[in-house]
Structure to design on (320 residues):
């Protein structure tokens, strides 16, 4: 059967990423399980064999999509591992081992692949990760590296994307927007921060920001609630402001929509003493932490809140 079609209505692009994932769950049937043991979170969570749960995540870097000729092989390799590390951080976990598969055209230079793997080894050692194996497949013209990372929970608790309630506060680490100017490969995975958050009972849920806050925040938002974000509180990066001056889009648009920020986004129980929580964070981390809003019931979003429906993050397989 020819896997391609010339009819856009019959192609995966007509579905977009979220609808396709829903269909994949349906097609798998009983072979998958409800979240977080099945499809839908930053990592798959496997049943515990002891006090800790096994975490599994996978992400690629593909030439022409995640990196181009302007990026040295060392930067592409670091991005490959670190985007997977960010998923482990988003569950409050500890990375352990990885396997890497390559789609490799014959004409890829030995110098490029040598630089890629040497850098991958350095990055893995820095984060305590063992590269345990993988596979190589020859491809016609696509250069891609696909990494599957295994980790484990730091304790008995794994933070997922589910659990926010009305009145909970919305927090994000770091700054947002403009990642194309360098952060998309120079970021630091928030592993220590994720583990700390997983140990705090007042933290309801957690994920990383990879496709843009405007899109990713929807994954934390329960049915019947809406995120009410304060415009002045949004931690807009200097890079986002630089891009805004270049392309005429607002800096807030870049902060909400650009993606590849790889910061942590979480909900904090509304009853929490926020000042004490933030003080405890500052004693432990230099990473900036910002309360950007609150989850409220539908129909109760204040007029001053950011109109999130006007902004869109990166949508994989977006339809025309």
């Amino acid at each position: 059967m020819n896997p391609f079609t010339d009819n856009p209505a019959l192609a995966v692009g007509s579905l977009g990423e979220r609808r396709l994932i829903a269909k994949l769950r349906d097609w798998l049937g009983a072979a998958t399980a409800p979240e977080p043991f099945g499809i839908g979170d930053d990592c798959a969570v496997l049943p515990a064999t002891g006090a800790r749960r096994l975490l599994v995540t996978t992400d690629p870097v593909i030439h022409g999509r995640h990196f181009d000729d302007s990026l040295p092989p060392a930067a592409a390799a670091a991005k490959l591992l670190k985007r997977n590390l960010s998923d482990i951080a988003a569950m409050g976990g500890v990375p352990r081992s990885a396997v890497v598969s390559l789609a490799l055209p014959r004409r890829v230079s030995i110098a490029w692949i040598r630089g890629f793997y040497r850098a991958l080894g350095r990055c893995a050692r820095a984060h305590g990760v063992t590269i345990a194996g993988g596979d190589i497949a020859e491809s016609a013209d696509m250069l891609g590296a696909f990494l599957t990372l295994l980790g484990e929970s730091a304790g008995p608790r794994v933070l997922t994307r589910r659990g926010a309630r009305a009145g909970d506060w919305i927090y994000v680490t770091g700054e947002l927007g403009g990642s194309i100017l360098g952060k998309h490969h120079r970021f630091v995975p928030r592993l220590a921060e994720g583990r700390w958050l997983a140990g705090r009972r007042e933290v309801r849920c957690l994920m990383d920001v990879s496709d843009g806050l405007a899109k990713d925040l929807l994954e934390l938002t329960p049915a019947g609630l809406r995120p009410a974000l304060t415009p002045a509180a949004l931690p807009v990066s200097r890079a986002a402001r630089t891009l805004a001056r270049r392309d005429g889009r607002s800096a807030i648009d870049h902060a909400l929509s650009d993606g590849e920020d790889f910061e942590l986004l979480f909900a904090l129980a509304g009853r929490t003493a926020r000042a004490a929580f933030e003080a405890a964070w500052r004693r432990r981390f230099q990473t900036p932490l910002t309360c950007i809003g609150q989850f409220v019931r539908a129909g109760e979003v204040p007029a001053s809140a950011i109109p999130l429906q006007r902004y869109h993050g990166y949508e994989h397989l977006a339809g025309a």
User: Anything to note?
Assistant: The two ends are 25 Å apart (CA to CA). The chain has a mean pLDDT of 92. The chain is about 30% helix and 25% strand.
